[in-house]
Design goal:
single chain; 10 strands; 283 residues; 3 domains
């Protein structure tokens, strides 16, 4: 199986500008050794300690220019756990798996049929766990029509997929099946510390989408927090309207006038602002 930290970083942050699993060659250089030459993009060349820093980091951004080739080779000879490589993996050699959600009450699916079509056109192979999109009104046939392969057995699904996407954190039964795989989804590592430790101990590469810095403009499309909070604000007004004994909006009829409702929204975050907008224009 071929997965890679830098590879998935490239997939997430530069989906339209790359053709293989490597970061764009913004300022790339080569490290030569006795056996092979490895192309390393400074964007992800961040080593443990003070040996080498990223050229886009806030501190010591010009340190690459001061390093000699011998210094770079010495840093590259550190243990694998202390360095990040950027060996490109062709899309054609990677399989993305769309997992069925096991969390009770979860109706969403991590990848829709339209997204599958885009991934297949890019060269990925996509496998879908049977019934993954059923609660989101996406049938297995819809995925098949877009080029995915639907797998009936859970064991076959986890054995086939290199990169597995989910909405909710994996269950206790799913965790062992993710050993050596790459998992993309909402993990909440600061809350689910036991889950985080279990995944780390079995060498599962985890990309917690709930931890993606949303201040980055190119990361806005990967926001899984504000986008869902916006829906929560809308849903809150819908449910409040169900309980409210009269109209939210004002009514002017031949029989008389009904004043609009007065609504108190607690909090003015993403969900609160969405709720205010819906209350202001409930139609």
């Amino acid at each position: 199986m071929k997965t890679h930290h830098a590879a998935l970083t490239a997939l997430f942050l530069f989906p339209s500008s790359i053709h293989g699993f490597s970061n764009p060659s913004v300022t790339s250089f080569a490290l030569r050794s006795q056996t092979r030459s490895v192309d390393v993009a400074p964007r992800v060349a961040h080593y443990v300690g003070s040996a080498l820093y990223s050229s886009v980091s806030n501190e010591k951004s010009d340190s690459l220019e001061k390093k000699t080739e011998e210094d770079l080779i010495a840093a590259f000879e550190q243990p694998a756990s202390a360095r990040i490589l950027t060996e490109a993996i062709p899309y054609e050699e990677l399989t993305i798996g769309v997992s069925k959600e096991t969390f009770e009450g979860e109706n969403r699916v991590s990848i829709t049929p339209d997204n599958v079509e885009m991934l297949v056109k890019a060269g990925f192979e996509v496998v879908v766990q049977s019934g993954a999109g059923e609660n989101a009104s996406f049938s297995d046939a819809a995925y098949l029509n877009k080029g995915a392969t639907v797998l009936l057995g859970d064991d076959q699904f986890f054995a086939t997929a290199d990169i597995i996407s989910k909405i909710c954190p994996p269950s206790e039964e799913e965790v062992p099946k993710l050993a050596g795989k790459t998992l993309i989804g909402m993990i909440s590592p600061s809350i689910n510390t036991d889950l985080y430790n279990s995944l780390a101990e079995q060498n599962t590469n985890v990309f917690a989408l709930d931890c993606v810095p949303r201040v980055l403009s190119r990361a806005q499309s990967y926001d899984v927090l504000s986008s869902q909070a916006n829906i929560a604000g809308y849903r809150a007004v819908v449910e409040a309207a169900e309980e409210f004994p009269r109209f939210f909006a004002g009514q002017m009829t031949a029989a008389g006038k009904v004043p609009p409702a007065k609504v108190l929204v607690l909090g003015a975050g993403v969900a609160g602002l969405a709720a205010i907008q819906v209350c202001y224009r409930p139609s």
